[in-house]
Amino acid sequence: MTQPLTQPHLSDDDLQLAAATAPLPAAAAAHLPGCRLCQARATAYQQLFAAAARLPPPAFAFDLTAAVLAQLPRPQPAFPWVLALVAVLVLGVVGAFMALFGGALGQAFHGLSTGLGAGLAVVAGFLVAGQGLELLARHRRQMRLLAFS
Protein backbone atom coordinates (compact mmCIF):
# COMPACT_ATOMS: atom_id res chain seq x y z
CA MET A 1 0.00 0.00 0.00
CA THR A 2 1.39 3.43 -0.88
CA GLN A 3 1.85 6.13 1.70
CA PRO A 4 -0.22 9.32 1.40
CA LEU A 5 1.58 12.37 0.07
CA THR A 6 2.98 14.22 3.10
CA GLN A 7 4.79 16.99 1.21
CA PRO A 8 2.82 19.79 -0.42
CA HIS A 9 4.46 19.16 -3.83
CA LEU A 10 6.15 16.34 -5.73
CA SER A 11 9.84 15.59 -5.30
CA ASP A 12 12.28 16.14 -8.15
CA ASP A 13 12.46 12.37 -8.69
CA ASP A 14 8.68 12.12 -9.09
CA LEU A 15 8.65 15.17 -11.37
CA GLN A 16 11.34 13.61 -13.57
CA LEU A 17 9.36 10.36 -13.71
CA ALA A 18 6.28 12.33 -14.73
CA ALA A 19 8.29 14.20 -17.39
CA ALA A 20 9.54 10.90 -18.77
CA THR A 21 5.95 9.56 -18.76
CA ALA A 22 6.92 6.80 -16.35
CA PRO A 23 4.40 5.41 -13.86
CA LEU A 24 4.21 7.43 -10.65
CA PRO A 25 3.36 6.33 -7.13
CA ALA A 26 -0.37 6.56 -6.49
CA ALA A 27 -0.17 9.62 -4.21
CA ALA A 28 2.01 11.50 -6.70
CA ALA A 29 -0.23 10.53 -9.61
CA ALA A 30 -3.25 11.85 -7.71
CA HIS A 31 -1.48 15.11 -6.80
CA LEU A 32 -0.10 16.05 -10.24
CA PRO A 33 -3.36 16.79 -12.14
CA GLY A 34 -4.54 19.25 -9.48
CA CYS A 35 -1.27 21.17 -8.90
CA ARG A 36 -0.27 23.81 -11.44
CA LEU A 37 3.19 24.28 -9.89
CA CYS A 38 4.05 20.59 -10.17
CA GLN A 39 2.65 20.50 -13.73
CA ALA A 40 4.84 23.48 -14.68
CA ARG A 41 7.92 21.87 -13.12
CA ALA A 42 7.21 18.56 -14.92
CA THR A 43 6.83 20.48 -18.20
CA ALA A 44 10.17 22.20 -17.54
CA TYR A 45 11.78 18.79 -17.06
CA GLN A 46 10.21 17.58 -20.32
CA GLN A 47 11.70 20.56 -22.15
CA LEU A 48 15.07 19.97 -20.50
CA PHE A 49 15.04 16.29 -21.50
CA ALA A 50 14.08 17.18 -25.09
CA ALA A 51 16.86 19.79 -25.32
CA ALA A 52 19.42 17.36 -23.91
CA ALA A 53 18.36 14.72 -26.45
CA ARG A 54 19.02 17.18 -29.29
CA LEU A 55 22.57 17.96 -28.16
CA PRO A 56 25.34 16.51 -30.33
CA PRO A 57 27.51 13.87 -28.70
CA PRO A 58 30.73 15.24 -27.20
CA ALA A 59 33.73 15.17 -29.50
CA PHE A 60 37.30 15.08 -28.28
CA ALA A 61 40.17 16.64 -30.20
CA PHE A 62 42.36 13.65 -29.34
CA ASP A 63 42.19 9.87 -29.39
CA LEU A 64 41.83 8.85 -25.75
CA THR A 65 42.53 5.17 -26.43
CA ALA A 66 45.79 5.93 -28.22
CA ALA A 67 46.85 8.33 -25.46
CA VAL A 68 46.28 5.72 -22.75
CA LEU A 69 47.91 2.90 -24.70
CA ALA A 70 50.97 5.07 -25.33
CA GLN A 71 51.47 5.36 -21.55
CA LEU A 72 51.37 1.61 -20.93
CA PRO A 73 54.70 -0.22 -20.73
CA ARG A 74 55.59 -2.30 -23.76
CA PRO A 75 55.88 -6.02 -23.02
CA GLN A 76 59.47 -7.16 -23.47
CA PRO A 77 59.92 -10.85 -24.09
CA ALA A 78 62.26 -12.29 -21.50
CA PHE A 79 64.30 -15.44 -21.76
CA PRO A 80 62.35 -18.24 -20.07
CA TRP A 81 64.97 -19.18 -17.47
CA VAL A 82 62.61 -21.49 -15.64
CA LEU A 83 61.84 -23.39 -18.82
CA ALA A 84 65.56 -23.64 -19.65
CA LEU A 85 66.29 -24.97 -16.16
CA VAL A 86 63.54 -27.57 -16.45
CA ALA A 87 64.77 -28.58 -19.91
CA VAL A 88 68.31 -29.08 -18.54
CA LEU A 89 66.94 -31.15 -15.65
CA VAL A 90 64.82 -33.26 -17.98
CA LEU A 91 67.75 -33.84 -20.33
CA GLY A 92 69.90 -34.78 -17.34
CA VAL A 93 67.33 -37.28 -16.09
CA VAL A 94 66.86 -38.73 -19.57
CA GLY A 95 70.65 -38.93 -20.03
CA ALA A 96 71.09 -40.67 -16.67
CA PHE A 97 68.23 -43.00 -17.51
CA MET A 98 69.81 -43.85 -20.86
CA ALA A 99 73.21 -44.41 -19.22
CA LEU A 100 71.74 -46.76 -16.64
CA PHE A 101 69.24 -48.60 -18.81
CA GLY A 102 70.59 -47.98 -22.33
CA GLY A 103 71.71 -51.56 -22.88
CA ALA A 104 68.38 -53.00 -21.87
CA LEU A 105 66.27 -50.40 -23.67
CA GLY A 106 64.92 -52.85 -26.23
CA GLN A 107 63.99 -55.32 -23.52
CA ALA A 108 62.57 -52.52 -21.34
CA PHE A 109 60.21 -51.39 -24.07
CA HIS A 110 59.23 -54.96 -24.71
CA GLY A 111 58.52 -55.88 -21.12
CA LEU A 112 57.98 -52.38 -19.67
CA SER A 113 60.12 -53.02 -16.64
CA THR A 114 59.65 -51.19 -13.38
CA GLY A 115 62.77 -49.09 -13.95
CA LEU A 116 61.47 -47.74 -17.24
CA GLY A 117 58.10 -46.90 -15.72
CA ALA A 118 59.74 -45.15 -12.79
CA GLY A 119 62.05 -43.22 -15.12
CA LEU A 120 59.17 -42.11 -17.30
CA ALA A 121 57.20 -41.07 -14.22
CA VAL A 122 60.15 -38.96 -13.02
CA VAL A 123 60.50 -37.30 -16.43
CA ALA A 124 56.76 -36.63 -16.59
CA GLY A 125 56.90 -35.20 -13.06
CA PHE A 126 59.69 -32.82 -14.06
CA LEU A 127 57.75 -31.75 -17.13
CA VAL A 128 54.63 -31.02 -15.11
CA ALA A 129 56.64 -29.19 -12.45
CA GLY A 130 58.38 -27.12 -15.12
CA GLN A 131 55.12 -26.17 -16.76
CA GLY A 132 53.67 -25.23 -13.38
CA LEU A 133 56.69 -23.05 -12.55
CA GLU A 134 56.51 -21.35 -15.94
CA LEU A 135 52.81 -20.69 -15.44
CA LEU A 136 53.51 -19.24 -11.99
CA ALA A 137 56.27 -17.01 -13.38
CA ARG A 138 53.99 -15.75 -16.17
CA HIS A 139 51.23 -15.07 -13.63
CA ARG A 140 53.61 -13.06 -11.44
CA ARG A 141 54.79 -11.00 -14.44
CA GLN A 142 51.20 -10.19 -15.36
CA MET A 143 50.35 -9.26 -11.78
CA ARG A 144 53.34 -6.89 -11.66
CA LEU A 145 51.98 -5.17 -14.77
CA LEU A 146 48.69 -4.65 -12.95
CA ALA A 147 50.31 -3.23 -9.79
CA PHE A 148 49.17 0.38 -9.98
CA SER A 149 51.24 2.26 -7.45
Topology:
Layout (H helix, E strand, L loop, with lengths): L11 H8 L6 H6 L4 H19 L9 H8 L9 H21 L3 H7 L2 H33 L3
Specify the overall morphology: elongated
The overall pLDDT average reads 81
SSE order in H/E notation?
HHHHHHH
Distance between the termini: 52 Å
- Approximate strand percentage: under 5%
Protein described:
The protein has 149 residues and is an all-alpha fold. It has two domains: 12-54, no CATH class; 79-143. The protein is built from seven helices and no strands. The protein has helices spanning 12-19, 26-31, 36-54, 64-71, 81-101, 105-111, 114-146. Helix 1 (12-19) packs across helix 3 and helix 5 runs antiparallel to helix 7. Keywords: Membrane, Transmembrane, Transmembrane helix. The chain crosses the membrane at residues 81-104, 116-137.
Compact summary:
Keywords: Membrane, Transmembrane, Transmembrane helix. This protein has seven helices and no strands. With 149 residues, it is an all-alpha fold.
Q: What keyword list fits this structure?
A:
68% helix; mainly alpha; 149 residues; 2 domains; 0% strand; 7 helices
